[in-house]
Amino acid sequence: MKVFKVLGSGCVNCVNTAKLIEKLALEQGIDVLVEKVSDPETIMNYGIMSTPAVVMDEKVVHAGGVPSTESIIGWLNSF
Fold first, then answer.
1. Residue 5 near residue 55, CB atoms below 8 Å
2. Where are the domains of the chain?
3. pLDDT at position 73
4. CATH number for the 2-76 domain, one of 3.30.1490.20, 4.10.520.10, 2.60.40.2700, 3.40.30.10?
5. Which pairs from 38-42 meet CB under 8 Å and 24+ separation?
6. 4 forms bridges with which residues in the sheet?
7. Which of 4, 11, 49, 70 is the most core-located residue (most Cβ within 10 A)?
8. 36 has a pLDDT exceeding 90
9. How would you classify residue 65: left for phi > 0, otherwise alpha for psi between -120 and 50, otherwise beta?
């Protein structure tokens, strides 16, 4: 199971990012856990300056906007 964290204030883009990851994972048949993180201190600990940001298995893979479908599929299929 891949673990994703969507970092952000809970804005529309943050919510849409989390939903898109969940939707694409379901379509690919991949088990994921998507956690939404809105605590500013936690977000800053990842070194994030713009949100939404995505952390996969504790590694920042994206920051600043909704990631592309292609990017998410790439993350889902990486080992």
1. yes
2. 2-76
3. 96
4. 3.40.30.10
5. 38/7, 38/8, 38/9, 38/10, 38/14, 42/7
6. 34, 56
7. 4
8. yes
9. left
